[in-house]
UniProtKB/TrEMBL annotation:
Residues 1-20, 63-74 have a biased composition (Polar residues). This is FAD-binding FR-type domain-containing protein. It catalyses: 2 oxidized [cytochrome P450] + NADPH = 2 reduced [cytochrome P450] + NADP(+) + H(+). The keyword Calcium does not apply. The keyword Magnesium does not apply. GO terms for molecular function: [methionine synthase] reductase (NADPH) activity; flavin adenine dinucleotide binding; FMN binding; NADPH-hemoprotein reductase activity. GO terms for biological process: homocysteine metabolic process; methionine biosynthetic process. Residues 1-30, 50-78, 198-219 are annotated as: Disordered. It holds the Pfam family NAD_binding_1. One of its GO terms (cellular component) is cytosol. Keywords: FAD, Flavoprotein, Oxidoreductase. Its cofactor is FAD.
Amino acid sequence: MASSLVQQVETVPVSSTSHPGNPIPEEPTTLPHLKIMHPVPAGLLDTHSSSVSTIGTAEPFSGTDTPSTPGTEQSTDDVTEGILDLTIGSKSPPLTSKRRRRASTVLISQTSEDVEKILGSGKSGTHVLENICCGGGCCKLQPLQEPASSSSIHPVIKPKNKAFESLNLQLGQLSHNSILTNITPLPEKTVSFSPVPKDLADKESRPADHPPTFVQPHPPYEVFRAPLHHARELTKPGAEKRTYHFDIDVTDYPAEGGDVDFVVGGAIGICPQNSDEVVDEVFNLLSIPKMVRDRKVMVNTTNGRWPTVWGDEKARSLLTTRRELLSWCSDLQSYPPTKQIFRLLAEYATNRDEKKILMFLSSAQGQGAFCDLRTGQHTTVPQLLSAFPSAQPPLDYLLSILNTLMPRFYSLSQDPLISCNIRDGKGKCKRLIEIAVTVHEAPDWRGGNRTGVGSGFLERKAKQLLHAEQLGDDISSLNLHIPMFRGLMSNPLAREFVSDGPMLLIGAGVGVAPFRGFVQRRLKSANCANKVWVLQGIRDSLLDELYSGEWGVHEETVKKVVQSRSGEGRYVQEEVRNQADLVWFVINSLDGRVFVCGSSKGMGEGVEAALVDVAMAKGNLNREEAQHFWQGKKDAGQYIAETW
């Protein structure tokens, strides 16, 4: 059996910007770069920009043909070696006249049947992966058994609705006679409702577009209700992903403890709201009357932080409404289902067949089907309630087991210290921060796509504003606000940004947005030693090149755009290898820094592999030494990667 997996090394090309045999760090003379001897007045900088979504997307690899799954032997060594051989072999596609797309991962199975082909039906193969399976105990399933005394089989009839069919559950020979073991216990009920005391009955209601005051992701401070100054779409029609720019007014942001301000590369937190359509759908599926949905009620918890996000772990009694809790406090679509929710639905299912299926998913015998749900496309709470319509647990019990709706973080896409050049009607300076958000989409069980919680929330705000602009309405009359908080401004990009030394900024998709702020700051205090280069990975410059012409400088001197779906069809990691001289010069310079921002899958992994290849070629290092070299630079704060 092979003791290690030998990886192929991508060749670092020889060109005017790449000399693999030269280990001396030298600044490339053929590469355009920015040299400014005097500071540029802040008023000359273009401030039309935005920031990056940590839930956003970056340039992914395109898929290749899926390799077929070979038959395997039953011994542990043969199973493991077969998987390794398959992985190695898949990395060397046959040469063809047409350039093949490359995938960042190798798909060796899609269903439980494929896994059985690899591991076999016995237990020997299972032990190979037992410690690294999906985390839900996927390898601990037990076979279905029928009672020995059973004279007839009563099969389970599957629910006939589209939501259930979309789950693609593999129930095997499940029947009402099947014996189920190791069933998950009924979860603890930690939430309850009670009437509002008389002294609180007349308390003024909160704005519907802002979370309740007890939602505190940055305690002890409350979420700030920031006016939305403007929004626009950065991508063009036909782009694979939609990206929006937001100008958020933080002029009146309250003072907080400590010497913290908005900084270059910093990220703000935004508290998203579940859409009204999703919330009303849950109400309808639980048969909650409309008259009580917005009625004030006391919510009582026995322990934990919910619904405060990061409050102390303790019992609480809070004034709220059922709609507030579903809209701002519980995530209805971002997490894979748990056995606790299946067990709760089973407890309240009135249909005999639905109850058996739900108990099956809560048992050891249903472990395979359960893991298929967890490792596949995330199912939503409305989807589960629609799939099992007879299961209608009390809302307070359901809230006890749902995940907390967490804030989403987005990097600033401009230098927040740029002098004010926007004034209101009274001549008062407005302080704006800018972010860019790429809308995340996933297949919806009804057909089409659904948007992510955070990006979908912000897209709805942007569409409201853009629609009003098209009609010629005054957008200030919309009174749109973004619930946000500044936080500690201590994310990696903010911590490691410095005003001196050369910088290489590598980003793909919306990951390039925070680098615009880096360039703007350098323009304010630039001198001949402050050199900055940007490698921007996109799909097509005509559709999704973000902030084209908005970097406050002649872009050809700072930025190189790499298109994966147009022109030469290259990924940004390929350009990293092609710019080996620049990479080696920057990372070995005094105060030199290499920043990487974008999706960790595909782009992030690819860029890191390219950087290792550059170190191997330029430094005459082996792979282990090259990886150690970059780890040392990361520990020293010279190599900073912020990926998601």
